[in-house]
Specification:
The protein is mainly α and about 250 residues long. The protein contains eleven helices and no strands. The chain has one domain. Helix 2 packs antiparallel against helix 3 and helix 3 runs parallel beside helix 7.
């Protein structure tokens, strides 16, 4: 079987596995949708940065929140659980290259992220009255889905550093405070100055700033700063994941 066929089959299996896990797919879709309906449509805080309508501004921020969640839990918690069940050890006994397995998981995270983004955009257009040029819709969607790459690497690193039973708790302890401090729940400009200063050292802040840029609502003046920060963060996450993978060789979890 060719590498392409292995990749396609592994991606299909990973996607079916996640779709059959309601404890993963329901929270992944429910939480960003719930928060968007609550803070983006029902409750009001005024307009977003640059005079952008609240429904459009929060569409982007909760879209980023959903993508990060899908990436961290899809790879991080799932990988840690499979390590504990011995599946990663079994994979080493098969001829499947490890790289294809991880690429398949990242692809599935991207597909789930696309589903989250499309769902939020549909709600924004139908219930939130969001009206944007087609090019802006496409740019926002592309940036949001592309964010699954660095955060999938982050999830992979956490999946190797965390124990099989502690991974969900560890991810939540990182994911939720980091999302709030980065301005994904409430706009960064309404948070205290301390959070605004801290946010510039967090990957989600730079990610959402890039996604807000097509709306003209980004507060980070230079896109290159955010791109560089995310690229450097991705390299760090990848290095940690590779270190964890090498450390995991020969270790069996009961």
């Amino acid at each position: 079987m060719s590498a392409a066929q292995i990749f396609v089959n592994e991606t299909r299996c990973e996607l079916l596995k996640l779709l059959r896990l309601p404890l993963f797919i329901l929270p992944t879709l429910f939480f960003p949708v719930f928060f968007y309906l609550l803070f983006g449509i029902l409750l009001t805080f005024g307009r977003g940065a640059g005079g952008v309508a609240q429904s459009a501004y929060t569409l982007v921020t909760y879209g980023a929140f959903g993508v990060i969640g899908a990436s961290l839990f899809g790879l991080g918690a799932g990988l840690a659980a499979e390590r504990g069940q011995g599946w990663m050890l079994l994979n080493r006994a098969t001829p499947m290259p490890p790289l294809l397995h991880f690429l398949a998981r990242m692809t599935v995270a991207g597909l789930v992220s696309l589903l989250v983004v499309m769902l939020l955009m549909t709600l924004g257009a139908v219930l939130g009255g969001v009206r944007l040029p087609t090019a802006t819709w496409a740019a926002v969607a592309a940036i949001l889905v592309a964010g699954s790459v660095p955060f999938s690497l982050f999830g992979m690193a956490l999946g190797y550093l965390s124990g099989p039973n502690s991974a969900p708790a560890v991810i939540n302890l990182i994911y939720l405070p980091m999302s709030f401090a980065s301005g994904l729940w409430l706009p960064i400009f309404v948070l205290p100055k301390l959070f605004q200063s801290l946010a510039r050292w967090l990957p989600p802040y730079h990610y959402v700033q890039l996604a807000l840029r097509p709306l003209g609502a980004a507060q980070e003046p230079h896109a290159g700063t955010s791109v560089s920060f995310l690229a450097l963060s991705s390299l760090v996450f990848l290095a940690v994941a590779l270190w964890g993978w090498r450390r995991d060789q020969g270790v069996t979890y009961g």
